[in-house]
């Protein structure tokens, strides 16, 4: 077959006007029609910039200097504008709330047709056709508030498919989705790729999740350069992932722990392809060698929730009969799909909402009559987006805010803030304006501004959302530090790696009911819970089953125990 | 808070008014509003109000849906009547050119028949536009609003800005709520007890995170729109625009008739904007 | 100055949504009875300075009209138009300050405030009263008094909140590099 590349970068470099150095250096890359390419790289590697060069946002929306050449459909992009490009490239952005610009799904799918002045009747015809491709035909009159994250993304996908583009570009499609929805998204992409033969480019840092299905090639970008251009098996067998700080698939980590050499011969690129039975002996021996952790003495209960029931409208209960306890110094995760009542539960605990029935008690005392402000001294809450919490220009002022509100004398504030900044690793930046900090550092500032009030319990909403592996590890290790100091932590999360790695215990909500309060290992291997809460089985479990290991759940728990010991937690 | 996901409480109801297209309702709304805006004839205004009540009944709007608005408007018009009397007790006399004292009060605050007519007319004039606004809001699908604006010759980009406002207001409202709760947890109090300086300072602690996180969003949304060809040509079609049917033309015809009738009363009968029974 | 890009349109849409929210819910009671500082005008002045007069005018016009519609059932056109005019006039501060370069002090603050005060005076002491008289035949002395109070209150709101927002915004425009760890 002699195919001409549909996308071709030739010695392509790009530098934003506002930056001192180029973001992309001498990129040479050819993509053939019908190929499915995954582009991975840590944050700031230039992978999104590469995507923006392909879809035309560069140079249309971002100014900068381009050298070299980029050909799309054999024509240089220099001669095309973003509108011409949008006829052959459809882009699905990571923030589906921002890309869903219309009031209903139908309108949003029609958006680009509207801009092309397609007559009304024809438009309705096409929207109907495309919406069937992504299974949204019954939701065309729904507003984004009535749709789930997955449905919003499918709407967005339909909105670009309606143009009959040749190339589909997905920019971090998994970032805002729960595990099961993410899995479905990858399956839908696969389906479209094979049925209508599009060229597909996926930009993601969550390698394992994308490799749920086959891809033709994986391009690794680091510091503006392509450092690998290969297939999944070769990439996973190399040391490139570790070097660039991209998380390797969890089952590969397990195989490595078990001493199995990772080579292309065992086809380690995908969980479905890996020759697990060859590794059975090594895995079994390894599993047997893992010591269970010492049983820790029972700690006193800090927070107890009993028979909690809540409704916003008095008709439908958002939460029903919730019962659980948090022990001192625990780190637990609270999981469940969007709308399952997770955030409502945290709002009730913080006193933002008042429970209909049931009690919440702190160390045996009912906290019903405590105001939001009083509870904040016991229970701190950190929002997902740090930009929604930061209101001061200087780090010191931001962190001191809560104390100043409480009329703490200034001479007491200074040492308290300094101490917290020290714990949070922000001491060197004490004089800095917050605007000069990175996203991860801002996150720390918001955590510091809550910690300064000395809460015993900390609730964090998606602390690592949208972060690459390095930043994820940074934030989580920081939380472990705080946890070790005795702060009880509850994490609201979609991230199953996080659950496995950091929280021994998980609370699972589904439709307002607490359907599980169990170790993470058993939650992520229980099919019923997985289905009800939109989770996904961990690949460790698959690995164990494929290798015919009898106690697969025990294998997952073994992995957790091993890692904890290794990382000395 | 029960997250309000729709800006207006538009419900799909089977009524002759609901079945009109958004464009029709917008045109009728403007015609009828201008009709009462121009006229200062209480007979005309009352007739239009009667018509509004009829339409309200036709569109099956329940009083409970509009209770709050009615209350706000009543407070507004009554305060306005009192204040304007205090500021200019002889306004009616000036307009109608006669002075018929009804109640003789000390100082310049005599109550005159002219002032009473002026005040009552104005009161009805203010209230008469309300039913049309309410009917328009409660019976028009917000999705149709932008396309209707575009079809009455508002540039499509501006019409789309209005659509974006309707789309993102609930998001902004939810963010505001989250931010406000998070700041209250840190100890922020929004009570009236605080000094003015503190009230301003505390207000900023919510407004700043709200605005700055929204600015981030502007960039993402405009990229998403550029990528799907927004603004590529000078016109645009609309998925939600409906074909005009015979009942639409009838509605516009009736509204136009009322508009012309009210204007004619002013021009040919009163020979001024005012109806003057005093001479 | 009057260029409209997609970004301007989105800024108008989101800006008007923010304006509505502040207009309806975030009012700060003032010492004068029955009046309050409308933080919304601070937002309007801020957005107009960052995105230009068209954005400023439309944000305030759309935001005010929709807020009125929700609260009273119908827009109060005379004041809605005045809001739009004020927003448009605030926009003359667009590109006249150094806010995008990361600086907003002394001279910039003065420029911004002179422009917003002129804008408020024209909108509330001229436009709103004239429309009130034309449409509703309100007494002249009443509408002028109302206009003066509105001009004063909104100048303070736009002045205080607008200035503080612009200072905070200019800080986000600072270039890195000049900072060292302490």
Structural notes for this entry:
The complex is a heterotrimer of chains A (569), B (279) and C (182). Chain A has 569 residues and is an alpha/beta fold. Chain A has 3 domains: 7-246, P-loop containing nucleotide triphosphate hydrolases (Rossmann fold); 249-289 and 539-569, no CATH class; 302-538, P-loop containing nucleotide triphosphate hydrolases (Rossmann fold, 3-Layer(aba) Sandwich), CATH 3.40.50.300. In chain A, the strands form 4 sheets. Chain A has a 6-stranded mixed β-sheet, sandwiched between helices. A 6-stranded mixed β-sheet of chain A has the order 16-17-18-13-19-20, with helices on both faces. A 4-stranded antiparallel β-sheet of chain A has the order 2-1-4-5, with helices on one face. The model of chain A has no long low-confidence stretch (mean pLDDT 91). Chain B is mainly α. Chain B folds into 2 domains: 21-141 and 246-279, no CATH class; 155-239, no CATH class. Chain B has a two-stranded antiparallel sheet with strand order 1-2. In chain B, strand 1 and strand 2 (111-112) form a beta hairpin. The termini of chain B are far apart. Chain C is mostly helical and 182 residues long. Chain C has one domain: Arp2/3 complex 21 kDa subunit ARPC3 (Orthogonal Bundle). Chain C contains 6 helices and 2 strands; from the N terminus they run αββααααα. Chain C has a two-stranded antiparallel sheet. Chain C is globular and about 45 Å long. Classes of the chains: A alpha/beta (569), B mainly alpha (279), C mainly alpha (182). Chains in contact: A-B, A-C, B-C. Chains B and C meet through helix 3, helix 5, helix 7 and helix 8 of B and helix 1, helix 2, helix 3 and helix 6 of C.
**Helix proportion of chain A:** 25-40%
CATH superfamily of the largest domain in chain A: P-loop containing nucleotide triphosphate hydrolases
Q: What is the H/E string of chain C?
A: HEEHHHHH
Poorly predicted parts of chain C: none
CATH architecture level-2 label of chain C: Orthogonal Bundle
End-to-end separation of chain C in angstroms reads 42 Å
Name the average pLDDT of chain A: 91
**What percent of residues of chain C adopt helix (DSSP H or I)?**
over 70%
Radius of gyration of chain C: 17 Å
Q: How large is the share of residues in beta strands of chain C?
A: under 5%
Q: Poorly predicted ranges of chain A (pLDDT <50, ≥5 residues)?
A: none
Tally of alpha and pi helices of chain C = 6
CATH class descriptor name of chain C? Mainly Alpha
Instruction: Tell me, rounded to a whole number, the average pLDDT of chain C.
Output: 91
Strand content of chain A: 15-25%
How many DSSP E strands of chain C? 2
- CATH top level of the largest domain in chain A? Alpha Beta
Q: Please give the order of strands in the largest beta sheet of chain A.
A: 6-7-8-3-9-10
């Amino acid at each position: 077959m002699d195919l001409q590349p549909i996308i071709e970068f030739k010695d392509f470099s790009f530098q934003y006007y506002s930056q001192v150095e180029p973001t992309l250096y001498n990129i040479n890359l050819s993509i053939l029609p019908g190929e499915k390419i995954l582009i991975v790289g840590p944050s700031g590697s230039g992978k999104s910039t590469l995507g923006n060069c392909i879809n035309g946002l560069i140079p249309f929306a971002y100014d900068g200097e381009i050298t070299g050449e980029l050909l799309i459909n054999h024509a240089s992009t220099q001669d095309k504008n973003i509108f011409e490009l949008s006829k052959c490239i459809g882009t699905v952005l990571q923030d589906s709330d921002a890309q869903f610009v219309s009031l209903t799904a139908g309108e949003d799918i029609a958006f680009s047709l509207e801009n092309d002045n397609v007559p009304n009747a024809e438009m309705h015809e096409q929207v109907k056709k495309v919406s069937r491709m992504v299974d949204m035909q019954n939701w065309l009159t729904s507003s984004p508030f009535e749709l789930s994250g997955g449905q919003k993304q499918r709407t967005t996908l339909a909105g670009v498919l309606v143009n009959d583009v040749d190339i589909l570009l997905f920019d971090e499609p998994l970032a805002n989705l729960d595990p099961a929805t993410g899995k479905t998204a990858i399956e839908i992409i696969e389906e479209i790729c094979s049925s209508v033969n599009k060229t597909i480019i996926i930009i993601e840092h969550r390698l394992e999740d994308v490799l749920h299905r086959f891809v033709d090639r994986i391009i690794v970008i680091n510091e503006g350069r392509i450092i690998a251009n290969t297939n999944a098996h070769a990439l996973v067998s190399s040391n490139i992932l570790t070097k660039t700080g991209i998380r390797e698939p969890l089952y590969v980590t397990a195989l490595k722990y078990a001493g199995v050499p990772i080579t292309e011969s065992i086809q380690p690129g995908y969980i479905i392809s890996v020759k697990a039975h060859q590794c059975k002996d090594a895995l079994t021996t390894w599993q047997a060698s893992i010591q269970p952790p010492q049983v820790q003495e029972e700690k006193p209960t800090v927070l107890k929730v009993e028979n909690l029931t809540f409704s916003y409208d008095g008709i439908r209960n958002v939460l029903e009969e919730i019962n659980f306890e948090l022990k001192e110094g625990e780190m637990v995760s609270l999981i469940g799909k969007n709308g399952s009542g997770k955030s409502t539960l945290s709002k009730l605990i913080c006193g933002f909402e008042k429970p209909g029935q049931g009690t919440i008690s702190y160390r045996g005392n009912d906290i019903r009559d405590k105001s939001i402000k009083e509870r904040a001294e016991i229970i701190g809450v950190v929002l997902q987006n740090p930009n929604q919490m930061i209101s001061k220009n200087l780090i010191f002022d931001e962190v001191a805010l809560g104390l100043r509100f409480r009329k703490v004398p200034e001479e007491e504030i200074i040492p308290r803030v300094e101490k917290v900044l020290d714990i949070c690793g922000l001491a060197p930046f004490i004089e800095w304006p917050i605007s000069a900090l990175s996203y991860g550092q801002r996150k720390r500032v918001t955590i510091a501004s809550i910690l300064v009030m000395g809460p015993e319990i900390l609730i964090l909403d998606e602390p690592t959302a949208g972060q690459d592996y390095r930043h994820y590890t940074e934030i989580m290790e920081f939380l472990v530090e705080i946890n070790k100091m005795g702060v009880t932590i509850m994490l609201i999360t979609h991230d199953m790696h996080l659950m496995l790695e950091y929280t021994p215990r998980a609370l699972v909500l589904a439709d307002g009911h607490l359907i599980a309060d169990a170790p993470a290992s058993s939650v992520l291997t229980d099919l019923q819970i997985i289905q009800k809460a939109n989770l996904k089985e961990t690949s460790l479990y698959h690995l164990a089953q494929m290798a015919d290991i009898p106690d697969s759940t025990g294998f997952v728990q073994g992995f957790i125990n091993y890692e904890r010991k290794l990382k000395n937690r | 808070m029960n997250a309000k996901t729709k800006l207006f409480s538009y419900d799909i109801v089977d009524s002759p008014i609901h079945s009109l297209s958004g464009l029709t309702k917008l045109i009728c709304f403007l015609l009828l509003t201008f009709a009462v805006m121009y006229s200062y004839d209480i007979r005309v205004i009352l007739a239009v109000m009667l018509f509004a009540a009829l339409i309200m009944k036709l569109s099956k709007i329940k009083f409970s849906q509009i209770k709050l608005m009615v209350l706000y408007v009543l407070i507004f018009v009554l305060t306005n009547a009192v204040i304007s009397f205090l500021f200019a007790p002889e306004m009616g006399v000036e307009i109608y050119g006669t002075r018929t004292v009804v109640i003789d009060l000390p100082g310049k605050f005599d109550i005159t028949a002219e002032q009473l007519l002026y005040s009552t007319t104005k009161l009805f004039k203010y209230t008469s536009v309300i039913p049309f606004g309410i009917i328009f809001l409660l019976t028009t699908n917000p999705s149709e609003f932008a396309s209707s604006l575009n079809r009455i010759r508002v540039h499509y980009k501006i019409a789309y800005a209005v659509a974006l406002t309707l789309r993102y207001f609930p998001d902004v409202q939810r963010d505001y709520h989250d931010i406000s709760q998070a700041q209250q947890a840190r100890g922020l109090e929004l009570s009236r007890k605080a000094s003015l300086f503190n009230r301003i300072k505390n207000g900023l602690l919510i407004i700043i995170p709200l605005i700055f996180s929204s600015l981030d969003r502007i960039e993402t949304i405009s990229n998403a729109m550029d990528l799907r060809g927004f603004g590529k040509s000078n016109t645009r079609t609309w998925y939600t625009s409906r074909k005009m049917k015979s009942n639409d033309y009838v509605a516009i015809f009736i509204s136009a008739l009322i508009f012309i009738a009210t204007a004619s009363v002013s021009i040919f009968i009163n020979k001024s904007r005012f109806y003057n029974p005093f001479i | 100055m009057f260029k409209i890009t997609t970004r301007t349109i989105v800024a108008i849409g989101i800006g008007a949504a923010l304006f509505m929210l502040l207009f309806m819910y975030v009012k700060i009671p003032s010492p004068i009875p029955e009046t309050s500082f409308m933080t919304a005008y601070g937002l309007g002045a801020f957005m107009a300075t960052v995105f230009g007069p068209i954005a400023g005018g439309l944000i305030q016009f759309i935001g005010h009209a929709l807020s009125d519609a929700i609260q009273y059932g119908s827009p109060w056109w005379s004041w809605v138009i005045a809001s739009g005019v004020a927003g448009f006039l605030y926009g003359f501060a667009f590109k006249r300050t150094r806010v995008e370069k990361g600086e907003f002090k002394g001279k910039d603050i003065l420029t911004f405030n002179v422009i917003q005060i002129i804008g408020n005076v024209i909108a509330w002491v001229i436009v709103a009263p004239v429309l009130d008289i034309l449409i509703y035949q309100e007494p002249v002395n009443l509408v002028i008094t109302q206009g003066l109070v509105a001009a004063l209150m909104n100048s303070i709101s736009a002045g205080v909140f607008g200035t503080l927002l612009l200072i905070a915004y200019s800080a986000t425009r600072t270039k890195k590099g000049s900072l060292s760890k302490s």
